[in-house]
Write a structure and sequence with these properties.
Elements: H1 2-5, E1 9-11, E2 15-23, E3 27-34, E4 43-50, H2 55-69, E5 79-85, E6 90-96, H3 103-109, H4 116-135, E7 138-139, E8 148-152, E9 155-158, E10 165-166, E11 174-175, H5 189-194, E12 196-197, H6 199-214, H7 223-232, H8 240-249, H9 262-271, H10 282-294
Parallel strand pairs: 1-5
Antiparallel strand pairs: 2-3, 3-4, 4-6, 5-6, 7-10, 8-9, 11-12
Helix pairs in contact: 4-6, 4-10, 6-9, 7-8
The chain binds ligand 4HZ.
The site of ligand 4HZ has 16 residues, from strand 2.
Length: about 300
């Protein structure tokens, strides 16, 4: 019933735990059924619980909830509401449950089922979601196939807004003070060296997501493994991130995935322009992907 859809406060007593979905940046997500009638007819939901400790996380969690609540886009996972559990003085974020899971798991399971056209459809949907995010002045900062959810065989959505920041009105980028454990193999060079994040650094990460898509998320050619193979060869005690920036400065880039159409690989390498202004916009990328789908 529609009233359940725009529910915003979920009562803990009607929440039925079903199974764990996974661990996020600082919270875990569980599959639950919200069953006020108690007859198992309630809707399945994804409930993100904050780890009880670390006060700072509570502020970040509040920001994540405010972020996802403000997003209304077909290509972004939907906010459903919050659930207060007074007992533990904590709150949980309730989101729609996407039954096909994360893109990585989906591609590993359905490898032979999905072809380049389907990958291009997914890429165009992610691109549209990112265009929408940019229109709201958000930078995602954690774009990776592991943070893309599959709603159906023909629909994917961007999720996990734990690291998302709003770009201040008077600047083109957001500077992070506490990098934390960063997914550096999806980071643009300026994000690694200066902790600078912008729409253009999201474009770089989108290029890495394209690489994961057209590699079908094969774990033996995931970005981290490919970079470490290259870095490993000239390890001189420098930190991994400095080595990474060095090979990027030397213009080494992730190799084209096997059977990847040349036009798609050139899109990836355009996203990996060393300086941010060289990189295309999401609308340019979206047009190029649409053109490729027509062919
Ligand atoms: C920590 C949680 N991890 C996982 N979640 C799910 C999942 C299936 N279906 C889902 N429906 C709604 C949500 Cl929010 C998650 C799932 N599957 C495997 C996971 F490892 C998560 O949020 N990951 C980020 C992203 F959502 F982008 F995948």
């Amino acid at each position: 019933p529609s009233h359940q859809q725009d529910q915003s406060v979920y009562e803990e007593r009607h929440l039925r735990y079903i199974s764990p979905l996974g661990k996020g940046n600082f919270g875990s997500v569980e599959l639950c059924r919200y069953d006020p009638l108690g007859d198992n007819t309630g809707e399945l939901i994804a409930v993100k619980k904050l780890q009880p400790n670390k006060q700072s996380n509570l502020e970040d969690f509040q920001k994540e909830i405010n972020t996802i609540r403000s997003l209304h886009c077909d290509y972004i996972v939907k906010y459903r509401g919050v659930c207060y559990s007074m007992g533990r003085l904590s709150m949980s974020l309730v989101m729609e449950y996407l039954p096909y899971g994360s893109l990585i798991g989906y591609l590993e399971k359905n490898r032979q089922l999905v072809n380049n056209r389907r990958m291009l459809l997914f890429a165009s949907q992610i691109c549209k979601g990112l265009e929408y995010l940019q229109s709201m002045r958000y930078v995602h900062r954690d774009l990776a196939a592991r943070n893309i959810l599959v709603a159906s065989d023909t629909l994917v959505k961007i999720a996990d807004f734990g690291l998302t920041k709003i770009i201040p009105f008077d600047k083109e980028y957001y500077r992070v003070t506490h990098p934390g454990e960063s997914p550096i193999f999806w980071y643009a060079p300026e994000s690694i060296t200066e902790s600078k994040f912008s729409h253009k650094s999201d474009v770089w990460s989108f290029g890495v997501v394209l690489h994961e898509l057209f590699s079908y998320c094969e774990h033996n050619c995931n970005p981290k493994r490919l970079y470490m193979q290259e870095i490993g060869n000239d390890m001189q005690g420098l930190s991994i991130s400095m080595h990474l920036v060095d090979i990027l400065k030397d213009n080494w880039r992730l190799p084209a995935p096997p059977l990847c159409p040349p036009r798609i690989y050139s899109m990836m390498t355009a996203c990996w322009g060393y300086s941010a202004e060289e990189r295309p916009t999401f609308s340019t990328l979206g047009d190029q992907i649409e053109t490729s789908i027509q062919d």
